[in-house]
Design goal:
single chain; mainly alpha; binds zinc ion
């Protein structure tokens, strides 16, 4: 069972979640060339300075005191990648929020960067990595169990286990994305940024639509939950 978990985790990490690939025409200047490097770097540092303490405070408020809320922000500078951001854990369980250079450069304003950061931090606060692992484990057990009951050979049982893990891992990802958008809205607001303006980042990405077992919710559903949460939070004096 255990060998499945790093695989699923790796897939999840590779897929990232703040972004889906931005379409660019081959041979054309990239649509996401964005702002000059110096401005982008300065904006990133400012957003980290304001969002990280708020995310840490929100993490401590919502989780037990023993939880690891000391976010480490890392910049992924591997070349040739699409804009991406993701949340993961290091070996000691410290939460890592990773952003690559194309993402840092492709945001239109600091609100967008703050929203992506709030969203990724929220995945940690809400325990999504652990929940995806659990969903994958359940899927693997059910599928391999069903295959074994029908008298499948060892190879087929193993394939069923892998398929079940992948199916399980994808079952609730759209819900987790919307949950992270919702808590991310609060973190963004508390850090002094505009989450509705920030979430407009999604409107420039290809809309994944509402595909069965797709990993991302439709852009309209994301904007809707951000708008509603921001309204409620502002009315409640957040
Ligand atoms: Zn996400």
């Amino acid at each position: 069972m255990h060998r499945l978990i790093p695989l699923v985790l790796a897939l999840l990490t590779m897929a990232g979640c703040a972004t889906v690939p931005v379409m660019t025409n081959p041979g054309q200047p990239s649509a996401i060339q964005g702002q000059p490097a110096e401005r982008a770097a300065r904006q990133f540092v400012q957003v980290v300075d304001r969002v990280e303490p708020v995310a840490e405070a929100e993490c401590r408020r919502l989780l037990r005191m023993s939880a690891n809320c000391d976010f480490l922000i890392v910049v992924d500078d591997r070349p040739g990648q699409e804009p991406n951001a993701f949340q993961t854990l290091d070996r000691s369980g410290r939460p890592i929020l990773a952003f690559n250079i194309p993402l840092i450069q492709s945001v239109d304003n600091a609100d967008e960067l703050a929203f992506v950061m709030g969203h990724e931090a929220s995945h940690h606060i809400l325990g999504h990595l652990g929940r995806v692992q659990q969903d994958a484990t359940i899927g693997a057990i059910v599928f391999s169990g069903l295959a074994a009951m029908t008298g499948a050979d060892a190879q087929s049982v193993r394939s069923a286990e892998e398929f079940g893990a992948s199916l399980g891992a994808r079952t609730f990802t759209k819900d987790y994305e919307l949950e992270a958008d919702q808590l991310g809205t609060i973190v963004t607001l508390r850090a002094g940024y505009d989450p509705v303006r920030g979430a407009e980042f999604f409107t420039r990405l290809p809309d994944p639509g509402n595909r069965f077992l797709g990993t991302h919710p439709p852009n309209a559903a994301r904007m809707e939950i951000v708008r509603r949460t921001a309204e409620a939070a502002r009315a409640g004096g957040v």
